[in-house]
Design brief:
There is one protein chain. By secondary structure, the chain is an alpha/beta fold. It has one domain (about 5-260): 3-Layer(aba) Sandwich (Rossmann fold). Helix content is about 45%, strand content about 15%. It is built from eleven helices and seven strands. The chain has helices at about 20-25, 40-50, 70-75, 95-115, 130-135, 140-150, 165-185, 205-210, 215-220, 230-240, 260-265; strands at about 5-10, 30-35, 55-60, 80-85, 120-130, 190-195, 250-255. Strands 3-2-1-4-5-6-7 form a seven-stranded parallel sheet, with helices on both faces. Helix 3 (about 70-75) packs parallel to helix 4 and helix 4 (about 95-115) runs parallel beside helix 7 (about 165-185). The chain is globular and about 45 Å long. The mean pLDDT is about 95.
């Protein structure tokens, strides 16, 4: 297979947001590198796309593995990255607090360090934050996150001892990281944005709905009166990676059915 000079990377590509993003990118004729934990699930996404003629590569890996950035760069080789959609992450019902914070924040930061210089001019990285990030708002939290971004985790550690604490704070840190990284990405002519999904009908979303009364209240308060679907997040992510979004960077985009507005955030 002849390799193109650039590639789009999707993490969590077998999941409810990553898979529809892969389908949308493949329809545009982009070469794709799909990353997720399980090769079999990745191939279930990749095989139908390859059958349409799309150039699809896969990388089965834990993004929290310290070796992931090197393995990713090896898979990319001499090519540049014209789009990164980073959907991989863990919610409170899926892991303990330490694992959630490691996957959602630390692994994301290492990923950005790896890809920053590989971004093409006009390229874009899209990260997934969360509506819950807006509910974890206090001066103490924001001060701790500011120190976290400077490499000092001491202030944030007492706040992330439970999954219910680690998740929203890790996602609030993602929003802050996007704002900070916009300058460094801009130096390469690239952009970086995050998306804050509301309640989305994915495996992860359904797990949270079953376990948390708060999510049921959020659904009742969502002005559109329904769950979102993964493709509604993917469609925004793909738009953000297009020339139509060429002046959007350093910000968080709410895709939440209006629930944050209804709750006063």
């Amino acid at each position: 297979m002849t390799q193109t000079s650039s590639i789009a990377v999707i993490t969590g590509a077998a999941g409810g947001m990553g898979a529809p993003a892969a389908k949308r990118f493949a329809a545009q004729g982009r070469a794709l590198l799909l990353c997720d934990l399980d090769l079999n699930r990745l191939e279930q996404v990749a095989a139908p796309l390859r059958a349409t003629g799309a150039q699809i590569e896969t990388l089965a890996v834990d993004i929290a593995d310290a070796a992931f950035p090197a393995r990713l760069l090896s898979a990319i080789g001499s090519r540049s990255i014209d789009a990164l959609i980073h959907t991989a992450g863990l919610s409170p019902t899926l892991a303990d607090a330490a694992r959630i914070f490691d996957v959602n924040y630390r692994a994301t930061r290492r990923l950005l360090d790896a890809v920053r210089s590989k971004m093409t001019k006009g390229g874009c990285a899209v990260l997934i934050s969360s509506c819950s990030a807006y509910m974890a708002k206090s001066q103490a939290i924001d001060d701790a996150i500011a120190k976290l971004l400077d490499g000092d985790e001491s202030a944030v550690q007492p706040m992330i001892g439970t999954p219910q604490g680690a998740y929203p704070i890790s996602k609030r840190a993602i929003i802050a990281l996007v704002a900070r990284e916009s300058t460094a990405f801009g130096q390469h002519g690239a952009r970086i944005v995050s998306i804050a999904p509301g309640l989305i009908d994915t495996g992860m979303g359904r797990s949270e709905m079953a376990a948390s009364q708060q999510t049921k209240i959020m659904l009742e308060r969502t002005p559109l009166g329904r769950l979102g679907i993964g493709d509604e997040i993917a469609s925004v992510a793909v738009f953000l990676c297009s020339p139509d979004a060429s002046f959007i960077s350093g910000c968080d985009i709410k895709v939440d059915g209006g629930v944050l507005a209804a709750l006063g955030f």
